[in-house]
Amino acid sequence: MDKTNNKKIENAFFVSVLLFVFKIIFPSANTFILLLINEILILASAYFWFIYVSDFVNPKVSKPLSLVINAGLLNALLFFLMSASSWLFSGLKNSTDLIYVLFSSIIAFVFIGALSYVFAVYKKLCFYRQKKNPSLYYKIMLIFFALTALASAFFKADKTVEGLKVVLPDSNSLIYNILFAITVSLILANSFRVAWIAFLNKKQKINLLMLSIAIIFISGMNSANDNFIFIKNFSPALNQLLDLVMLYGLLYFIIVFFITLFHLPTAEVIDRKNEELSSFKDISKMMSQVFDSEELYETITSTTLKVSNANASWLVINNNDDTTIHSVKGIGLIEAKQLSDFLLGRKIVSSSEAKIIDITEVKGKEDLPKDIYTIVSAPLSIHNSNKGYLFAARKTYYRFEEEDSKSVSTFADFAAIALENTKLLEESIEKERLEKELDVARDVQYKLLPQKIPEYKNLDIAALFVPAFEVGGDYYDFFEIDKNKFAVVIADVSGKGIEAAFIMAEVKGIFSSLSKLNFSTKELLIKANSILERSLPKKIFVTVTFGIIDTKEEKFTFVRAGHSPLLYLSDNNISRLVPQGIGLGLNFTEKFDNLLKEMEIKLNNNDIIILFTDGINETLNEYFEEFGYDRLEKLIFENRHLSADQISKSIMKAITTFSKNRSQHDDITLVILKWNNNINKPGVN
Fold this sequence. Notes:
- This protein has 3 domains: about 5-270, no CATH class; about 290-425, GAF domain (Beta-Lactamase, 2-Layer Sandwich), CATH 3.30.450.40; about 455-675, Phosphatase 2c, domain 1, CATH 3.60.40.
- About 55% of the residues lie in helices and about 15% in strands.
- It has helices at about 5-25, 30-55, 65-90, 100-125, 135-155, 175-190, 200-225, 230-235, 235-290, 295-310, 335-345, 400-450, 495-515, 520-530, 590-595, 615, 630-640, 645-660; strands at about 310-320, 320-330, 355-360, 375-380, 385-395, 460-465, 475-480, 485-495, 540-550, 555-560, 565-570, 575, 600, 610, 670-675.
- The model is unreliable at about 160-170 and about 680-685 (pLDDT under 50).
C-alpha cells in the first residue's frame, strides 16, 4: 500500500472515530448544533470512505459486469441489513442505552461503507469508455448530494426524529425540494453515460439485462421502503444519502436496461467485427512471433472459421507447379482435396479477388461432398504473386454474404503476409545456419594454409590469400624436402565456393604426401593427376604451378599444369614464363605426361619470382576493364627494390584501388620469392 492510500484510510478512520466518539457522548442530537455536527461527520465519513474504496474499484473497471454484480450484491446486503435492523431496533427507538448506540453505530458504518462502494461503482461505470471527461458534472452532482442530504435534516417537512426541537418550519421544505429536484436532474444527466455497453459482446449484454432487472428491483425496494426509522434516528443525512444512491441505481440501470436492449439486435454484428479485429491483431502478432509454418496454417484456418461463421476451412499452398493442402478444419482431407481440385481445375476460383461459390449451382457437382453448399475462396496474394488460396465453407443453405467475402479476403491478405514472413524467416534462419557452417569451413581452410611463412637462407618469402566468398578454391603451400631444398606450390580449382574448397583440401593432402617422396617436379604432378582420377568430379580441374628451390645450387625448377604464367624479374627485366602443361583432371592418359614440361631458372642476386592465380590479373574495375598482366608487371618492376612482403602489400593495395567500385569475383592468391645472396638468415624455421 503506497503513501497515498495510507493517507486516505487514515482520514477515513479518523473521521469515523470522531463520529463514533460523538455518538457515544451525544447519543441523541436534540439541538441544532449537535445535529449539524452529527450530519457533517456523517457526510465527511461517507466522503472519505468513498475516496478510499474507489481505489479498489479501479482495477476492476475493465470488467464492468463484475462491478455491476458487486453493486447488486451490496444493494441486496443493504436491503437485508435495513430489514434486520428495523426488526432488531423496533423496541429500542430513541433509546440512549450504550448497547443501542454501539449496535446502531456499527450498522451505520456498514451502511456507509456499502453505500460508498456502490456509489464508487456507479462513478467508474459513468467514467468508463467516455471520450470526454465527465468529472466536472460528477463533482457538481456530489456537491448537490451533500447539500440535499444536509438539507433533509433541517428543511424536510417529514420530521421523524423524535426529540429534535430546532427543525425549521415546514414552509422551508421548499429549499429541500429544490435541492432534491436539482440532484435528481443531475443523477438523470449522469445516468446516460453508458458508453461502455457498446463494448460488450452479445452474451455479456444478455447477462447485463438480467443484472439490470435485479438491481432495478432491489434499488426500488430500498428506495420505496420507508420503515427504516433506525437510519433516520441515527442520521437524517445518511437516510437521505441512502435514498439518493438507491434512486441513482434505479434510474441508471433503467437506462442501462433499455440501451442494452436497443443494442442487442446489432450485438452479433459487433461481436463479429470485434472477432475480426482480434483475429487481425493475432495474425499481426504471429507475423513476428510464429516460426513454424504448420502452426501458422492451423491458426489461420481456425481463425477463419470464427471470422466468417463457416463450418469448414482449409488452405491450398502453391509449390511451384504443384499444390498442397494444409490444416483442414471441419471437413475431411479427401473432401477438401476434391473441392480444391474441382474449383482450381475448372478455374472457378479467382486469383485476384475473393469469390462466393454456390456449389448447388455448379455443373458437375455430383462427385463433390453433398453437405457443402457455399464456399468463399480468397487468394493469398503478395507482391502480385499468388501463393495459394484460403477456403471457407458452409454446410447449411444459409449462404455467404458479400460481407463474409470481404472478411475472408481481408484475413487472407493478412495471412499471405504472415506466410511470406514465415517463409522469409525460415530462409533467414537457414541462411544464418549456412553462414555459420561457412564460417567454420573458412576457419578450417585458413588452417590448411601455411600458418607461418618459412625462413630460408638467402630467400625472402611473402604470401597472401583473399577468397572471393567465405571459402575458396585457391591454394598455396611450402614443403621442406631437405636442408637445401624446399618446394612451393600454388593451385587454383575451377569453380568457387564449398565444392572448390573441398577439392582444395584434397589437393593439399596429395601434395603434402607426395612432397615427402623425393619426386621431381614433373613426376610429382603426374602422380598427383593419376590420384585425382579416382576422386575429381567431371568438369572440375585444377591448375598448378609446382617448383623446387635448391639453395645450394641456387636454382629454381618448376612445372606448370595449365596455371597462370610465372613472372620472373632478373637484371631489371621481367618476363612471363609459360612452360607447356594442362590442368590436373583434364586428361588422365599419357597425353598429360607428354605435354608437361619442366623449366629451370638460375637464380641471381635480387631475382624475384611471382606465382599468382588469375584472380589478380582478371580483377575488374567499374568499366569492366581487367587489371591485366601489364599493370602487374609494371607494379612489380617499380617496387623491385622493396622486400617481398612490401611488394605483396603494394600489389594488394593497387588491386583494391583499381576495383573499389566492384565486388571481388574470384579468389586472389599471391606468392613472392626474392633471392638475395647477401641475406644471411638462419636455416629453415
